[in-house]
Amino acid sequence: MAGQKILLQTSGLTVGYRSGRNQSKAVAGPLDLTLYAGQMICLLGPNGCGKSTLLRTISGLQEPIEGRIELEEKNLRQMKPSQIAQKISLVLTDNVRSANLDVYSLIALGRYPYSGWLGILTDHDKLVIDQAIKATGTGAFLGRKIDSLSDGECQKVMLARAMAQDTPLIILDEPTAHLDLPSRIQLMRLLHQLAKETDKAILLSTHELDLALQVADRIWLMSSGGRLDAGLPEELVLNGAFQHAFNKDEIEFDAATGTFNIHYAGKQTISVTGDSTAAFWTRKALIRNGFSISAAAEKKLTVSGEDNHPVWEVDDNGKRAVYTTLREFLDTIKI
Question: Which domain holds residue 135?
Fold first, then answer.
């Protein structure tokens, strides 16, 4: 992308496991990927497709089977761990839980690549730590012990530690795991904001498809069998990549709504006209009850009126009926 700095690039990368000196099992690849500064990239895919393996390989924790990884134009395999730690900060799925470690001390550990084993913090180190605390909103519980935090609070602290490490690239493996819905939304929004404000690249694996479609600048979409599609979220919806990756028996990704539908065989189709909020949720209710929405259906539904007083009018081969509540309409049409 013109004008944007490339932080990390892979060419012919194959990731997997080595089971012996001359034996290996490939999980995905070959992959040609690019990470740009200031972008948030969401890595999506079904369980077992190799998301964590890819993240561990890109971050230098695991050797690639084949291919090359360049970190700011340097071969990752030729870099020392201390050099990588100044370029990549990694937040794994498991939170750090220690009864004796307070929040500030854990965040300050992010400066270890610079302070060394003595852990002596300079004024610059303290300034970077303070900036990380402010950016992640963790100042309210600095004096607390790590084991007293909620999962959402602990995830913010781990992110603050990664921010204190002050690397161009932050990698997170399922950071929203075990969080409730409001905390997942807050964390994803925070990550997107940090990428824009700090010009860092943030790469994270997640199962939050709906949130990723809203906040990701780019998506890496892995499928079982080693395939990876990379592009804008909207591109991957329009070209069918999401359907290919996630569609299973009786479950289908709906490109029109960005959600999954559960299908039941043997139900009839209906067309729905209307662009109001009531029409949108009526479509949802019909799909949940096993109907397929098709513009060519003989049975036609028009949802009109204001959202607080909608009207449902059905035309079934010239036979008309009007309903003033969604429940009445659904009860009748199911019969």
Answer: 95-165
